[in-house]
TrEMBL record, chains A, B:
One of its GO terms (molecular function) is ATP binding. Residues 359-431 form the Lysidine-tRNA(Ile) synthetase C-terminal domain. It is an enzyme of class 6 (ligase). It is found in: Cytoplasm. It holds the Pfam family TilS_C. It catalyses: cytidine(34) in tRNA(Ile2) + L-lysine + ATP = lysidine(34) in tRNA(Ile2) + AMP + diphosphate + H(+). GO terms for biological process: tRNA modification. Its EC number is 6.3.4.19. InterPro entries: Lysidine-tRNA-synth_C (IPR012796), Rossmann-like_a/b/a_fold (IPR014729), TilS/TtcA_N (IPR011063), tRNA_Ile_lys_synt (IPR012094), tRNA_Ile_lys_synt_N (IPR012795). The keyword Transport does not apply. This is tRNA(Ile)-lysidine synthase.
């Protein structure tokens, strides 16, 4: 069994041999198998464990389990507690989505600050199938049926080709220990129903169902790439990007018999979902508009215009010297401190003398770049957004704190290397997002 | 319940009110409900029943059931017996595929010869779902998940929006009688497993699952239209159509990161399926080739060429006056007869004096047209092929019997109006495909 895994790893991910790897370990069956497999492969790796604090003692026991495993095997571990409930409430997300967001944000942070090349997660083929069936049961589209990719930028899922049964066999053969998989009760109810009632029937209908399903996923993903091509090719003909507006030329658009499909592709990333209204808007009178949470879609003569809601239109705000608070559009607090404290997503410490007042707070613009803290060299903000999987909405909501138009802080995400506290720093300014 | 159906019909298919309709009636629940609904709508209609002779007495009893229903309700009925087993064997098809082919070919024939505007079939939403799950269980791609459309050219499926439960409720409310659905045993086993074991779980997970599923299908179909767009747009850039060859420019193709997905789209209609070999062929040496049943794919310098296998390359064969048989490439028998007999797909009767010998037998060419028997006026052969749902392979295999380059007979499919026997005919020639 080990050979089968190892062969797959070395043919599909040969570059892992020389990489510095971070393994996401919940303590469940799948991630403990992944950890064991990687341990046996003589590569440089560490463990990252998220404690989402959603299941009280159990969550803490999972953390202790992974901690003591790391200690007894001399593995470097990173452990992070998240106030997932609070975050979910603040961001109006389900616990699951909130946990996923927190998890991947932290992974990307570790990638950058600790110089890992890749994060490995232990998703497997049955996970793919269960997600496919969950999405099908709720109603979905092609994207909901495509599954997650085995490599997406720096996230790698080396077990995606294997079934739960294979992983379990390996765990038993190797006397591995694990904790029961962490997932909240309602998700567990759905997954269990699918796992124990749907999947067995599909396997009865076709004994090699999982293999067929893997082919199906491959086909669907290839198809998805054609959809992306069509969307992009037609976009270039029909849509004009002007500043923060996207202007859809209806004369061009309406020549396409399937123009609704294109509107769907282009507008759903902006959070629009009232499709029937949107399809009506095409023929509505000039001036009519439809809103998503952060954007509006405006019928204007022979065009549809997508733009941020007017209250959110890009503006600049200033922080003057000795000003110790900003209240709008964000609440920031600035304090001179004597020594550097614990920095996190919401708190940074900068070299006050490197700043030129007034500081500006503004939205990002095409062409913005910065020197992300913990990285060598500069990076275009657009690239940073892409690597960190910012959605269009995340990007529009992002605020930059700037000094003389140099980015000091992508607020709440990452500070700039150029303004960090060094041994030569005389005055430290603590800036806090409240 | 009747109103619900009626509203749907009149909003979605308003043109049916004034159309001449042919209803496909198996005698099962679904088609008897459709027949009853249409009967109550005051439109001109008739019934078509296929007896596939696959279930012995049962098949005949179904036919008698529909016949006697038509008689007692004064409905015009068309009844056709098919030797489905023989046809399936000859064409190397499964019984199911053979039956489908026979059914739709006959429907299109009736449409043309009896001047119907549309054929209605009784497929419903649960059929869609079951087909989706059958295809999923076997392994599939987007096309296998898209279901059948509610309108496809002249085939209309007005019940596609309704569930089996709704249809059954209507049947009971209206005291309808029906025969148990005809389907072969192995198909029944699979459908029953899906119907009784899979679908109920999906409905437990989401009580409005069928509605969600209908949305899913809509989304997938919209997406499929984008796939078709991408395939067509890129085809125009990368492929040259020259005579009977398609020449794929590899220099252009290989610039696309997802070129395999395009090859899949373009080549599967030609019956190719050895995808790994085909993807290798792209980088193979000039002269290497791969075959499907009727086509070959040739690597030639910086191109891939799709063409018919060399033995099948378009040729002309001649039938001279008084020649009573042709043995190659088809076996045709020609006999002078005194009076016209029963003509069918394989037997035609023509006015011998209208013919100019030698007759030619050849493949079709772009620009060919004929006067399909039973229709007014002429029709391009390409349009005829399209309406009759000829596949690329069907088209390449089609033979034309011509007189002075006018089409006399699309062999085995349809004769030409210009050569039919009239009251002025002196000599009748019977031509038979043996």
């Amino acid at each position: 069994m080990f050979l089968k895994f190892q062969n797959h790893f070395s043919t599909q991910f040969p570059f892992l041999q020389k990489a510095k790897i971070l393994i996401a370990v919940s303590g469940g069956l799948d991630s403990m198998v992944l950890l064991d497999l990687i341990s046996k492969m003589n590569v440089e790796f560490a463990v990252a464990h998220c404690n989402f604090q959603l299941r009280g003692d159990e969550s803490n026991e999972d953390e202790h389990f992974v901690q003591s495993y790391c200690t007894s095997n001399s593995i470097k571990g990173f452990f992070q507690k998240f106030d997932t409930k609070q975050f979910a409430e603040d961001e109006k997300l389900s616990f699951q989505v909130a946990a996923r967001k927190l998890r991947y944000e932290w992974f990307y942070e570790l990638l950058a600050t600790e110089n890992f090349d890749f994060v490995l997660t232990a998703h497997h083929l049955d996970d793919q199938l269960e997600t496919f069936l969950i999405n099908l049961s709720r109603g979905t589209g092609l994207e909901g049926l495509c599954g997650i990719p085995s490599q997406n930028d720096k996230i790698i899922r080396p077990l995606l080709h294997f079934s739960r049964a294979e992983i379990e066999t390996f765990a038993k053969e190797n006397n591995l220990k694990w904790r029961e998989d962490s997932s909240n009760a309602s998700d567990k109810y759905v997954r269990n129903k699918i796992r124990h009632q749907l999947v067995p029937v599909l396997k009865e209908l076709n004994p090699s169902f999982l293999d067929s399903f893997e082919n199906t996923l491959q086909n669907l993903n290839q198809t998805q790439s054609l959809v992306d091509d069509a969307s992009r090719m037609v976009y270039r003909k029909v849509v004009q990007d002007v500043d923060h507006q996207k202007i859809i030329n209806l004369n061009e658009l309406l020549q396409l018999p399937n123009y609704q499909a294109y509107l769907f592709q282009w507008l759903s990333p902006f959070g629009f979902s009232a499709w029937l209204d949107i399809y009506d808007l095409v023929n509505a009178q000039s001036g009519k508009q439809i809103f998503s949470e952060h954007f509006r879609l405006l019928k204007n003569r022979n065009t549809l215009i997508v733009e941020t809601k007017s209250t959110e239109i890009s503006s600049e705000y200033f922080i003057h010297e000795h000003q110790d608070e900003l209240n709008f559009p964000l609440k920031l607090r600035l304090i001179s401190v004597c020594e550097i404290g614990k920095s996190d997503a919401k708190t940074i410490f900068v070299d006050a003398e490197a700043l030129k007042f007034p500081l500006q707070l503004r939205n990002w613009q095409e062409g913005d770049y910065f020197y992300p803290f913990g990285m060598n060299g500069k990076k275009k903000l657009s690239k940073f957004f892409k690597d960190e999987k910012f959605s269009i909405i995340d990007k529009e909501k992002a605020w930059l704190l700037c000094s003389d138009n140099q980015i000091v802080w992508l607020v709440g995400k990452r500070m700039d290397e150029r303004f960090k506290v060094t041994e030569n720093t005389q005055t430290i300014l603590k800036i806090q997002l409240v």
